[in-house]
Amino acid sequence: MTEITLINIEQQLLVWLLAMIRPGAAFLIAPIFGARNVPVQLRIILALGIGVPAALMSGMTVPEEGIISLQGFSLIVGEVILGLTLGFAIQIGFAAAMLAGEAISNAMGLGMAAMVDPSSGQSSSAIGQFLNIVAVFLFLAMDGHLMLIGIILESYNALPPGRAWLSAEQFRGIAHFGGLIFALGLSIALPVGFAVILVQLIMGVVARSTPTLNLFAVGLPVTLFAGIILMAMALPILADALQMGLKEGLMQSRALLGGS
Length: 260
Fold this sequence. Notes:
- The protein is an all-alpha fold.
- The chain has one domain (9-258).
- Helix content is 74%, strand content 2%.
- Strands 1-2 form a two-stranded antiparallel ribbon.
- β1 (114-116) and β2 form a beta hairpin.
- α1 (9-19) packs across α3 (40-58).
């Protein structure tokens, strides 16, 4: 450990500043930490608290040519890309909840019942918001936030600063992982969505056999009631599937450190 004196304090501050880039980039896009309602000051404090010990463990130093150089620019770009990729891999795991919620909402006729997502500021369906909240609780219950911090710390040993470049195979693995999460989101919505569609088909047959029946006045409440009952019955299975998606996101983020 280098002793901090008045002579090298500027160099040490630059090292700490560089060490904050990777965790700061990860927290910018990672779930929970990257939410819009999380203060920027809190992210900076977390990035400093993680980056300083990580810099000491990895022996991080300022490039000989300084930060304003090709070597310094390459170091900063590599740190930003790696941090964003680590957080984005976990964010993809959360996408299964929103995808399943959108599919179930459209099947229940709640596609127009949109709410503002506080984490992203974008509008999303009510069922998508509900499943996203469940995913956040599951992520915290399984200590996913602590696992993310552990992955960031491990990355300094696996991919030291200055050599933190990801290969094309690793980016291809993230793209493939996104396709798997898309399939997982549809499989999560399949039981409830398919059952709600069957209810709508039954209501269509009833309306056909009884022309005087107002389908719009009866069909929507029945579909909503059936969807709520089916959601309550399938919630344990949905929670298990969401937890599996979150674990896969953490595993994919950790796999980037091993070069796989």
